[in-house]
Amino acid sequence: MTLYFAGLATKLALRLRKAALGKAAPNFTLIAPYSFIVGFTVEMFVRGVGYFSGTVFMLLVAYLFLKAYRDQTRLSAPAAQNREQFA
Length: 87
Fold this sequence. Notes:
About 80% of the residues lie in helices and about 0% in strands. The protein has about 90 residues and is an all-alpha fold. The model has no long low-confidence stretch (mean pLDDT about 80).
């Protein structure tokens, strides 16, 4: 799980870096949750702060937001795509 989380945080950090350099179109809706996840990762792996810090709360908020965002984008998918998915 630790390796998976570190890989995920690295992937998100690279996405944030591309958006900051202008190499990719930034999705302003996802910048804050990605930043919270990367910030938590840096704090846990570099500083070793406990689990009851402010960044843990921000990580939970980011996770809940990304889950709601994913569910919302799934619901707004075309009906034909949904039928193919469940066929």
